[in-house]
């Protein structure tokens, strides 16, 4: 069809229909359809994730926030699914699977219990922290202190006293001397 236009992100349209990865999007308005990035698209009435209509989402106000998140004027979404209790107008993506609104922190589409929004930081690799605690993939890391916690990459993190792998404390590893190397790690008492 000579009127076909690629919109990016797998979306396209011609003079009569909108498409995702070659499959027609039922009910989508070709005239007003736009791709938003991150798997999201919209027309003047509805929003879509990977070509599937998002129930209840407003096409008029919908935007993609990156990191799998989207929002309209009243709700927030992760991978096209509405996040229960999240406020759309104040929602922001923090990267690494985390997002927040004015009252809560979320990992993907789940609320992170106990996390404090004003001091919350995502390291972008599953690890995050607030002023008092550290988190891995949305779960609080037992014993980790937020104020001194840093991510080292490759699944490793540390605070001033301990080292962690994928959110679990590494027995015998001390945070103050733990360093990640290209081929393993070194600690004050042992090397692996």
UniProtKB/TrEMBL annotation:
A matching Pfam family: DKNYY
Superkingdom of origin: Eukaryota
InterPro entries: DKNYY
Protein name listed in UniProt: Uncharacterized protein
Originating organism: Didymodactylos carnosus
